[in-house]
């Protein structure tokens, strides 16, 4: 076979060059190894087998299903079903046991915490944080300050039915009124009661704060929910104002904004979204974060 005119034959190896040259170095037109070519051809043939056996070619509304009918979604579903079968005995035991019995059974409690941790990450972490630390307007679940009770049963009920969620069994404490926007308090009075609330928590107040006036306004407008001493009311979901744990911020501007515009957070009811056993596991996990009673 003749060598193309643009090619030269390397005198040392007797191999034709490609015509490419860099700094006096010519590229040899060395054939690929036979074994490498055979593997390449085999993979091409193998790929046609994949086209036939597995889903591959796109169609207008779907794709070719493949002769095996296999899909990655179907494989995941099968794995999850297999996992459910493996967990079924422990899930049944968890469902049947009381919270007291679960607390005494180390194995069952560990299983409940593992289930609850997974459910928390999937459903609760977007609001409360992956570790339950919360954020402004979303409670910290690691401390010991609870609006609706900190027993494991209290927590289960809150998770199951939510807060002002619309469920017939939801927590229904009245939202905090918008004292400023409804004209119940004037701006100067809002400033006084905001300073009074900060004083109750041991926080500094601004110059011009009238303690007697602040106490009088608090007694008239706020004590019916928060109590005369500001200790709060679990039945109403009214927070304790004397500690230093604040859901919306403890600076005067944040407090005054709440007094002016009101507060009324909503938590969804997870009944119907999660099964009862998962809700029970979630309650045990949240209770164990450190703030449960």
Structure, described:
- With 293 residues, the protein is mainly alpha-helical.
- It contains eleven helices and two strands.
- The chain has helices at residues 34-53, 72-96, 99-104, 106-123, 125-128, 152-161, 187-200, 211-221, 223-226, 252-261, 276-287, and strands spanning 17-22, 25-28.
- A two-stranded antiparallel ribbon has the order 1-2.
- Helix 2 (72-96) crosses helix 11 (276-287), helix 4 (106-123) crosses helix 11 and helix 6 packs across helix 11 (276-287).
Span from first to last CA? 91 Å
Rough shape? elongated
| Share in β-strands | under 5%
> Which strand order does the major sheet show?
1-2
Q: Got a strand count?
A: 2
Pattern of helices and strands: EEHHHHHHHHHHH
Low-confidence stretches: none
What integer value in Å does the Rg equal?
34 Å
Name the helicity range. 40-55%
Task: Provide the fold topology.
Blueprint: E1 17-22, E2 25-28, H1 34-53, H2 72-96, H3 99-104, H4 106-123, H5 125-128, H6 152-161, H7 187-200, H8 211-221, H9 223-226, H10 252-261, H11 276-287
Antiparallel strand pairs: 1-2
Helix pairs in contact: 2-11, 4-11, 6-11, 7-8, 7-10
